[in-house]
Design a protein that fits this description.
240 residues, alpha/beta, Rossmann fold, binds zinc ion
Amino acid sequence: MRVTVWNEFRHEKSNPVVSGIYPDGIHGAIAAGLSENGIAGVTTATLDEPEQGLSAKRLAETDVLVWWGHRHHDEVSDALAAAVCERVNAGMGLVVLHSGHFSKVFKRLMGTPCTLRWRAEGELERLWVVDPAHPVAAGIPPFFELEREEMYGEPFEVPPPDELVFLSWFKGGEAFRSGCGYRRGRGRIFYFRPGHETFPTYHDATIRKVIANAVRWAAPVVLEAEPFQNRRIMPPLEPI
Ligand code: ZN
């Protein structure tokens, strides 16, 4: 399995708090967590690299793409966003993390505003497993906690998830659908909420296991080589 972890990689360059928590970048911590959980073939890509880190070749060689973005969603080119969505439709897995809910890619695939309520005070988050038999919940306890996280609250303006795996509760009182699975075309998408840049969430062992489970779940079953718009007219099998 070829996994690419894509990160905006800007907070780490401008905010010493973030670079202190993530000296190798958020992408570096996520990639390390995947390797730690037995996933080989993990590489990283970032916004400021040539072709925004995702050339056509790179995308064609990616089975599962992990996406972290926040402040600079608008800088991702429309052409790249379209190419990623097309690749998902062809079967590539996509794991969207935290503020990636507002990325061009996720919004296009959902077709809804993807807005939510938020508060970045750093409060306790308790995540409940609501579907213990789901592959993304494999080996995860009935609930687990993050001592300090940003709050995301409902209503989360996404289509009803095809599969709901986690539900979050926050100390301030809100609840949120924090682990949502979707099918689009041949591809699978998993949205996982935690991961605000000023908290050490991607160093947490349980969070790392969930992301690894999500990558495995999202791995392609079939991956179409030919774009959908190039489908040919079907000749009849029998004379008509
Ligand atoms: Zn955040």
